[in-house]
Amino acid sequence: MDIYASDEEKAEAIKQWWRENGRSVIAGIVLGGAAIFGFRYWMNYQQVQTEQASVMYQQAAIQLNQSEPEQAQKTVDQLMQDYGSTAYAVFAALEMAEKAAAKGDNDTAVSHLNWVIDKASMASHRELARLRLAQLHFSAGELEQASALVEQAELTAYQSLFAELQGDIKLAQGDTAAAHSAYQQAMLTLAVGEPRQSLLQMKLDQVAVADEG
Description:
With 213 residues, this protein is mainly alpha-helical. The chain is built from nine helices and no strands. Helices cover 81% and strands 0% of the residues.
């Protein structure tokens, strides 16, 4: 706009600009308002989902403490179905898998762990479930299934644990050289000061003795 134009010319220029751009401005304001409203609605929805999932999680914990495993399982199933996107559903599934495995109910444990691997939004939760599932297969003597899960590991946070389990698998398969290599990898990726260091060193020593024999 010309700074030397008269007031009438400036007013006419503004009107002309509004005629050409008014719709776009209004549309932008409407869309911006809708985006803000949508974001607030989504945040409120997420908060409600989390609060409701928390209540169900606590309910399942109470049922377990009161020795009501069947009722707790129903609560957890509903939690996983209705609030599967929340961390509470993941925690509940992991806990139910642990309790099922302790009772020797491997099918239920496997089902819960696979659910976490498939549904959990956080990679750390998926990796923890994958580790526990691999350990479950190893304990059941299903070495190939356990090894396949170990090879799928991605996060460095559990790298040492996966490597140690791989060493256990290779040792059970009679491959002491591969077991030694896996235990060494577990030692190298172990966090400083972890108490597992002495256990890993013991396993390394045992494999070395076996190799010498």
